[in-house]
Amino acid sequence: MFVIIALIILPFSLPTQTYIRKAESIASEKLGVPVTIANGHLRFLPSPRLVASGIVVGESQEVVVEKLVIVPTLSSLFSATKQINLKVIKPAIKKSALSIVSALTANKSEKAEVVAINVSRIDIQEMQFIWPDIKMPILNAEIALTKLNQLDSAHIESVDGKLKVDVAPNGGEHLITVNADKWTLPIGLPLLIDKAKLEMHLKGNQLTIPKIDAALYGGKLAGNAVLTWQEGKGASNWKTKGYLKIDGLSVKEPTRMISRAVYLSGHLFADGNFSASAKEVGQLADRLQANFKFKINNGILHGLDLVKVASLLIKQSQNGGDTQFSAFSGLLNISGKQYHLRDLNISSGLLTATGQVKIKPNKALDGTGSVAIKNSVSLVAIPLDVSGTVSKPVVLPSKAALAGAVAGTAILGPGAGTSVGIKAAEALDSFKNLFGRDK
Q: Distance from CA of residue 420 to its chain's centroid?
């Protein structure tokens, strides 16, 4: 707003270059960060307007605007309150710009200058958000403001037409409707949303999503969420919480995005709660806390043959094979960037397997488990170690199990001797774990 005020008032009394330098100085002082304007001039056709180009805000170019056009209403040019329309062309906004916005929000001393300019309408063309690890769509927007420069209504649409957002006044709040059609989620896995609709309510410092309704990969995603924030300084300014439920989602394509070596097929059913608290909105994803129960029915574990693993014949260099299962269930715990899969249980007509796996922030795996073949001679579960990475997981019999199997077989012979050796090794390993595990 400060940039706009300077751009409107100064060009009528100063030469162009002097006016640009003065506008930069005023904007820099008010925003608290450097502001530069490459060019600026006054045009009279098709109507009087100010055009500024090459606007850069912030030491690290947090905001870059290719062109800003300010079109004043002729009848308001010589009145106390100027009424204008804005056209913003190709703004690029970095995640770090949120700190500038937060500082402005906390500053309440600018009301006198705000009322001197009434922005009736803002048209934004090809707006791009530049955030690490997030591929945001390029957006166009049409925004209408009240006489107090507060949001009245808006229509925001991605350039490809796959995402549409409408904002409309609704009593003492704003109703926000989001529609997505064949749209790829920009956060986390690039999941393809077949169709989604969200109705959100914005009132004061709270955004409520009472109903989430989305269709993706043959399944349904439902739930609710709420986002709250507070102005000014504080240890925790942004908070969110909610509930999600997934019914019948085909996991083959999503899990293949994670790993081409080992992935799942089948239909996922899951539900759970999530929450996060952070000083800035951009930090919420890194502060996520969540717990989800999940179950995959009638699927296949591709790239890993657990029957072969249980035979104690698999080697480090061996890969491939499949494991069919009737059910794969467990608990997913998320704490920031670390994931923990607990109480894993795979069952089929041939085998049973249990385990737990931690996924570290660097995507490394650390886990244990066991697998037993039904109706086998040994009647013993083979302890497993899980290592490698998310993209290339490694599941092998534990070293203790292999050593015990060899020793037991040598002393008592194959079959019973193998089983006794494995059980003895497992007991010894469990005893060691009472005193902690080497890290």
A: 49
